[in-house]
Amino acid sequence: MSTDTGGQQGRTAYVIVGGGLAAAKAVEGIRESDSDGMIVLVAEENRLPYERPPLSKAVLKGEDEMETAFTHDRDWYFEQGVELRLGNPATSLDAEQHTLTLADGETLSYDKLLIATGSTPRALDVPGADLDGVLYLREMQESEALKARFADGARIVIVGAGWIGLEVAAAARDAGCTVTVIEPQSAPLVAVMGEQVGGWFADLHRGHGVEFRFGEGVERIEGDTSVTGVVTKSGDTVPADAVVVGVGITPNTGLAEGAGITTDNGIVADPALRTSAEGVWAAGDVANWRSTTLGTNVRVEHWANANDGGLAAGRSMAGQDVTYDPIPFFFSDQYDIGLEYAGYVPRGSGAEVLLRGEPSSNEFMAFWVVPEGEGVRVLAGMHVNVWDTIDDVQRLVRDKTVVDRGRLADPKVALADLT
Ligand SMILES: Cc1cc2nc3c(=O)[nH]c(=O)nc-3n(C[C@H](O)[C@H](O)[C@H](O)COP(=O)(O)OP(=O)(O)OC[C@H]3O[C@@H](n4cnc5c(N)ncnc54)[C@H](O)[C@@H]3O)c2cc1C
Questions:
Q1: Number of the ligand 1 atom closest to the C-alpha atom of 329
Q2: Among 8, 29, 150, 259, which has the minimal tally of Cβ within 10 Å of its Cβ?
Q3: Residue 374, Cβ neighbours under 10 Å: how many?
Q4: Do 100 and 138 have their domain in common?
């Protein structure tokens, strides 16, 4: 079947591929300045677009209903004049002909197309990884499946001490499970946080009863049909009723690659989120966009980038003059800890970590700084339970302000006074 969505009666035909937050926000961005363009939203999952952060937090802990994660209800898409193609993934894109083919054979023509296909969890490639009870966490049903395993006393083994691993560990401990985390590095989140702050995360979780196996890998997963244990590379067997794999994600670039669109750790996009193909934009986890402020391309796998980037892409598609230039931002909640991080620390930057406040109080800030002039320049900053500070962190990063390191580290000096 071919659906001619292209340019009817002068109306622009928009197609949005991907059913996540970036896709939903793109609709809002388009409608800001184009109230009658035709919009078709194509999603692989057979659900309305939803937000993923609650899947490892309030929803997983049973504090919120799954329904609260939906970005908008079905009526909203109807009111916005959006045609939904749910549970029907795009299988190929012809960027020359401006056509998109869906799994059921339908072909959509477009004037402007957004790729917001997100990312997919990396699979654990060891014997036994296909046993029942080896779980990933990206989609709603996976959060439900995991929650169902959280019976009091269940033995949960988590592979990977990244954000997903740590948030699942916190939720599992809240539910009374026994939790072991296996991580090849020497601390959680070492690549982003460094040893010192990573060590604080380890202490936080140990204080809540989580056991870590650092410097350790998974040799195989044992069980008959269901998982019973994880055999580590050093030969230990950790008993398990469920194994949660959180070893990173890869951007879903297949559609773009098939269409000859430039990719490099995601779909390469300019500051208006335009890709190398005329009429095609990219946003969210899948986009590796040019940051004007940072002077480099960045791909950000976090909520704010899907929210703001989706909106920006929609605006850009509808003809607004857009420079998408946020300071990368993310947040996390674990136990009674809330944290926010803003900035960008390139690999090999040699950034030093400067602490402000005492980490053991669970109320502190950390800054990733490089020396400059008489002081230091902030590449990134994070607060743990020190609220209303992240705007100042973003300002310091954006303005490349050179600050005195003693004053930056002193909680008595207001961040707003650091100029
Ligand atoms: C459990 C969990 C917790 C998180 N918690 C936090 C947090 O606390 N803080 C934070 O900042 N970030 C968090 N994140 C990250 C954040 O949710 C993501 O950055 C965000 O979901 C990215 O949105 P997106 O729209 O780009 O992609 P996605 O949310 O991945 O959505 C992309 C959608 O496109 C669909 N798709 C893929 N290919 C096709 C195709 N060919 N055709 C049609 N559809 C397709 C996919 O099925 C998917 O539904 C979390 C992520 C997860 C999984």
A1: 11
A2: 8
A3: 9
A4: no
- The pLDDT > 70 percentage for the chain reads 98
Say if 369 falls within a structural domain: yes
Residue recorded with tokens 């926010």: 340
CATH number of the domain within which 363 lies: 3.30.390.30
Residue linked to tokens 């539910």 = 175
Question: In this structure, is residue 326 part of a structural domain?
Answer: no
pLDDT for res 4? 54
CB-based contacts of 107: which residues, under 8 Å, 6+ apart? 1, 2, 3, 99, 100, 101
Residue 126 falls inside a structural domain: no
Neighbouring C-alpha atoms within 13 Å toward the C-beta of 189: 19
As a whole number, the mean pLDDT across the chain is 96
Question: Rounded to whole angstroms, how far apart are CA atoms 32 and 322?
Answer: 13
Residue 366, token pair as written in the block: 């950390």
Asked whether residue 182 is domain-assigned, the answer is yes
Question: Are 397 and 289 found together in one domain?
Answer: no
Instruction: Classify burial at 400, counting beta carbons within 10 Å of its beta carbon; exposed 0-12, middle 13-18, buried 19 or more.
Output: exposed
Give me the pLDDT at residue 1, please.
Answer: 41
- My answer on whether 257 and 234 are in the same domain is no
Question: 47 and 22, same structural domain?
Answer: yes
Lowest mean pLDDT among 8-17, 83-92, 306-315, 354-363: 8-17
**Residue 91 alpha carbon, nearest atom of ligand 1:** 41
What phi and psi, each to the nearest 5 degrees, are found at residue 336? -100, 25
214: Cβ below 6 Å to ligand 1? no
Pocket test residue of 303, 311, 329, 332 for ligand 1, highest count of atoms within 8 A of CB: 303
Boundary-marking domain end, from 267, 283, 317 = 317
Instruction: Based on the fold, state whether residues 254 and 242 are members of the same structural domain.
Output: no
Torsion of CA 165, 170, 172, 178, to 10 degrees: 90
Mean of pLDDT values over 179-194: 96
Question: Which range marks the domain in which residue 42 is found?
Answer: 2-120+250-317
* Nearest atom within ligand 1 for CA of residue 56: 1
Q: Which residue do the tokens 């504090």 mark? A: 63
- For ligand 1, whether the C-beta of 343 sits within 6 Å is no
The number of folded domains in the chain is 3
pLDDT tens digits for 377-399? 999 999 999 999 999 999 999 99
Which residue minimizes the CA distance to atom 37 of ligand 1?
Answer: 117
Q: Are 37 and 318 in contact (CB under 8 A)?
A: yes
**């996976």: which residue's tokens?**
142
State how far the Cα of 153 lies from the Cα of 158, in Å rounded to an integer: 15
